[in-house]
Design a protein that fits this description.
The protein is built from 3 helices and 28 strands. By secondary structure, it is mainly β. The radius of gyration is 21 Å and the shape is globular.
Length: 385
């Protein structure tokens, strides 16, 4: 009997060692508490010193264009507690949308892009103009911070180098995060994912910089975005978009679906986001037409595994938020685990200083943006290749 008790105790201890800790959840933005009608569209990055920065649109109403301002909260304890809300961009009645952030590897500078929509226009307005000048155009702005998000530069208008002079009406970065390449001939390149209108005829492309954000260029549109329905109408399969680096330095684009099969769409660039393969379905990643996140968690080097992560609703609606893992650069997604069963809309993944994964996501009928943190082992459960 004594032996059995000792043996059971040993087995219990071994079980604790082999079962990863469950996710921990902390609210970041709460619309009512933060004194806005709605706070949506998350972005999250971790600075070189380990500070977590969470961004979102602070809105005066439950609408995509409602005097939107760009808001931030900071955490210096790994996401357990968060600062009070700070507004870092405000343009009065004009709407500021789609915060998309990155931390530049060498300098630690935080870069944030967002767009300004004139107050008298909506995304589907026929009056939206192309080009760079006039009262009816979408503009793109860049903010930077050199002190872990405590203070920010004045907005820099980068429309002329991040938007096509003809054809493009609406433009939208991400939303979510940008990336900086770590391998291959374009190592160091910063890449922001974008889509451009007209409304319903969207194309995906990227905006890139080879001088740490001093200057920008536009890559080509992803081919195959537009499909024709049975009545001859044209519709885009693509819209909100994220990118991740593959193990050889190529770039994987992962897009929200708006037409075709109800799954994510992907394309690959072998020249750092300049040109792209034809868009194709990702059958394993269901998509009820919702922004999703893709993250390079680790490369197969220095003892680490080649791990790519995706977060999004594994459902026909915006719920059942699920984390997927791929070990072959997104060719297959053999492992998935439900993170949050209730409402789960826009989400953004990040890698935390302690090696855990963070996921900032919308829930509670868009009343809250919550931060989850969990070990990678919680997702894989020891099943990784």
């Amino acid at each position: 009997m004594k032996f059995n008790v000792v043996r059971l105790a040993a087995l219990a201890f071994f079980s604790l060692l082999t079962h990863a800790a469950e996710p921990v959840f902390n609210d970041v933005f709460v619309a009512k508490t933060d004194h806005f009608k709605s706070i949506r569209i998350p972005s999250v990055v971790v600075t070189k010193t380990g500070t977590i920065l969470a961004f979102a649109e602070a809105r005066a109403a439950n609408s995509d264009q409602a005097l939107n301002k760009i808001a931030i909260k900071r955490s210096t304890d790994g996401g357990q507690t968060w600062s009070s809300i700070q507004i870092i961009a405000d343009d009065g009645a004009n709407s500021l949308n789609n915060p998309t952030a990155i931390v530049e590897h060498e300098s630690g500078r935080v870069l944030l892009m967002y767009q300004r929509i004139p107050s008298h226009l909506k995304e589907h307005s026929k009056e939206i103009a192309t080009g760079f000048d006039g009262p009816n155009i979408y503009r793109n702005f860049l903010l930077t911070s050199d002190d872990d998000g405590a203070t920010w530069s004045n907005p820099l208008d980068v429309t002329a180098t991040t938007k096509r002079p003809t054809g493009a009406t609406t433009i939208a970065s991400g939303p979510g995060i940008a990336i900086q390449l770590e391998h291959g001939p374009n190592k160091g390149r910063i890449i922001f994912p974008f889509n451009e209108g007209p409304y319903g005829i969207w194309n995906n492309y990227t905006v890139y910089s080879d001088d740490r954000g001093a200057t920008w260029k536009c890559g080509d549109n992803v081919p195959g975005a537009i499909i024709t329905d049975a009545k001859g109408g044209k519709h885009s399969q693509l819209n909100e978009v994220q990118v991740a680096e593959l193990s050889d330095g190529s770039v994987l684009l992962n897009s929200r679906q708006f037409a075709g099969a109800k799954v994510r769409k992907k394309s690959i660039s072998h020249d750092g986001g300049v040109t792209w393969s034809k868009t194709e379905d990702v059958p394993e990643l269901r998509d009820p037409s919702c922004m999703g996140s893709i993250l390079r968690n680790s490369f197969a080097e220095n003892g680490a595994k080649n791990v790519l992560l995706y977060s999004g609703p594994d459902s026909t609606k915006r719920d059942n938020g699920t984390i997927y893992a791929s070990f072959d650069d997104g060719a297959t997604w053999p492992i998935k685990r439900v993170l949050y069963k209730e409402m789960f809309a826009y989400s953004v993944l990040t890698r935390l200083p302690n090696g855990e994964v963070g996921c900032l996501f919308e829930t509670d009928n868009y009343a809250r943006i919550t931060f989850a943190r969990f070990p990678l082992e919680w997702v894989t459960e020891g099943k990784e290749k």
